[in-house]
Write a structure and sequence with these properties.
Distance between the termini: 29 Å
Number of domains: 1
Largest sheet: none
Order of helices and strands: HHHHHHHHHHHHHH
Amino acid sequence: MNNLHAAWQIAWSTLRRRRGSLLTFAGVAAMFHFITAVGLQMVGGLDGVQSMLESYSPNIRQLLKISPALQADYSLRDHLAFTWLHPFFIGLCAAFVVGRSSDALAGDIESGAVYLVLSRPVPRWALVLGRIGEVGLGLAVILLMSWLALSIGVQIADLGPLPVAPYAVLVVTAWCLFMALSAVALIVSSVASRAGVAAALGTIWTLATYVLDVLPAAVNSPLAWLNPWHHYFPPGIVAAESIGWFGLMILVAWATAATIVAMALFGRRDLV
């Protein structure tokens, strides 16, 4: 119990120390969703957005996961949900979680700060748990501020009330997805000695899994369900108001298993 308390203290103290960059990420994400809502009429409304989508090449539409059905019948619900799949937003969230996880252990080893932390009676696994906990708390702040900003933007633009249930499911799904990506980046950080190397490998992992989820051969593969991105399609989630328990379990399994692996690897590595 004391070790879990130590992990919480590590998470909270790390979050407070890095609150400046967290608020920057959260502020940018919130502004993006707010502008997307209030600026809809400035680009010609849904007709203007749909016309823009039609101008994209098939390859670009595939990369952005814009299905033919979505393009043909693009509604306000689709537009607002698509902001959660927009390259800017997912890139921002991915940069936050991969950057934080890469620096969580490898950065401390590179700077030597890890020796100060571990000089206290704190097991290594508690340090790992505390650092991934800080990422989870920070990510929750970003997603909740995005949701709030989108809701405010919808009200100001007089687009009608934003339904609570579908977007609550979407926030939870997004949190699970990016925590899964973060935990795998943490594995790299647990064995690397330089934050730059850990960040590069974590970025490669994130980009590779995303690209695989848009390639037809990979998407139609029997193993496609193993890809975390396979279970994240905001327009579909908002329409169904549910991710489905299977997809949720896959994302949680990725995050949990990767965190446990990171704990084991960091606990066995030689820090001298």
